[in-house]
Amino acid sequence: MEDQELIWLERAKTGDRVAFSRLVEAYRRPVYNLAYRMLGNAVEAEDAAQETFVRMYTKLDSYQPERKLSSWVLAIASHYCIDRLRRRRGEWVSLDEEPIAAVLPSREQGPEERVVRSETRDEVQQMVNRLTAPYRVPLILRYWYDLSYVEIAEVMGLSVQAVKSRLHRARLQMVEVAPAGAALTMTPAGAGGVG
Amino acid sequence: MHTEYTLLMSMALDGEAAPDEIRRLEAHVTGCAGCAAMWTRWQALDRRFVAAAWAPAPANLAEKVTARLAEREAQKRRSFWLGSGLLVSWFAVLLVSAAAIGLLALWGTNHPKEVAALLSALAQLLSGGSHALRGIGTLAGSFGGATAALGFGLLIALTGWLALLWAWVMGRSRQWPGLSVSAGK
Fold first, then answer.
1. Each residue of A76-104: pLDDT tens digit?
2. pLDDT tens, position by position, B31-56
3. pLDDT given at position A91
4. Does domain A110-179 have CATH number 3.40.50.2000?
5. Mean pLDDT confidence for B124-150
6. How far apart are CA B7 and CA A154, in angstroms?
7. Nearest alpha carbon to residue A168 among B48, B14, B7, B40
8. What does the radius of gyration of chain A's CA atoms come to, in whole angstroms?
């Protein structure tokens, strides 16, 4: 897949818009999800995703092949979203923003499971919304993209130690800012051992 | 709660803790109530996050990106024409001004009154012309493109030239009393 993407990238560099559209299609989901999780609402997320791809197009020549394409694309998206969050009044996102996830169909079949799942998404997004921008990115990359510390460090342009520290602080901050009872209640499975 | 161990908890949840670190953490949480409570809370949080799904992306994102790229390129072209129009206009005005000043300096030394009358008439003509140009510029602006850019550039350039000319004329008004009367009207 990566090879095919590199071919599209080379074609896109020469101005081939069809090839670039293929790249957009390939990274549509991860970029949009990152933007949505970072910004907390669907309208801003779509705008940020579009802007990410426009920036990607204008920076095609600066892409270094030794770098993973996905890391590069996610780096553009995360930097743009951080800038956007900084431009907002203060560092905090309004809690009145209604996350789209709450009304989206889930992969579960049963209505009860669907409700539980959407409640989880809603609650999780609310917790992400309460985090300051520098802590959102590593947390999102860790949970939704399953990236290792090294990969997160590559995307964010940080050291592995900094990523480790930010994830630690993000978790501490989440416990501090989480709404009463949200995701923090002890469940039977939650009382298990390490790992 | 011990920071050293909360850091280990975070690493363990991320799958980045070494086996001996995990053993150390396990040993600690069995004897520390504060860290045990935190560990339980973090594990609960972790499960919530792992269960959270991806936000579904809009299906027509690629088309919208293509449209946005086309719009940006059109903007770039407009900016280029506007910049070029301004540059060309200012350059033309500079040349014409230099030529006019040169001629006036040569001829005007011996004919100060004629020069004063001529400048006054010219300034009034340009003043009226600038209004007309502004109207043309607005009209051209409604069509967009290079014409509007050039028209706008020309308007600014001519207005600037007029201002310079007036400043020059007013600066010499004491030497030419005849001109000060017309300028004061």
1. 999 999 999 988 855 444 443 434 443 34
2. 999 999 999 999 999 999 999 989 99
3. 46
4. no
5. 70
6. 21
7. B7
8. 18
Q: Best interface-test mutation with A: which of B66, B72, B76 has the largest number of A CBs within 10 A?
A: B66
Does some domain include residue B86?
Answer: yes
Looking at every residue in chain A, the average pLDDT score rounds to 81
CATH number at A1-89: 1.10.1740.10
Task: Return the residue of A nearest to B24 by Cα.
Answer: A194
Give the distance from residue B153's alpha carbon to the nearest chain A alpha carbon, in angstroms.
29
Instruction: Out of A149, A168, A194, name the one closest to residue B6 (CB).
Output: A168
- What is the count of structural domains for chain B? 2
Q: Looking at the predicted structure, is the pLDDT value of residue A190 above 60? A: no
The amino acid at residue A115 is V
- Interface A–B counts its CB contacts (< 8 A) at 131
Tell me the residue range of the domain where B85 lies.
76-183
Asked if residue B171 belongs to a domain, the reply is yes
Residues of A in contact with B51 (CB under 8 A): 117, 120
Domain annotation covers residue B47: yes
Out of B16, B35, B51, a domain closes at: B51
Which sign, positive or negative, has the C-alpha torsion A195, B1, B4, B6?
A: positive
- Rounded CA-CA distance A10/A7 in Å is 5
Q: Give B42's contacts in chain A (Cβ within 8 Å).
A: 171, 175
Task: Write the single-letter amino acid at B112.
Answer: P
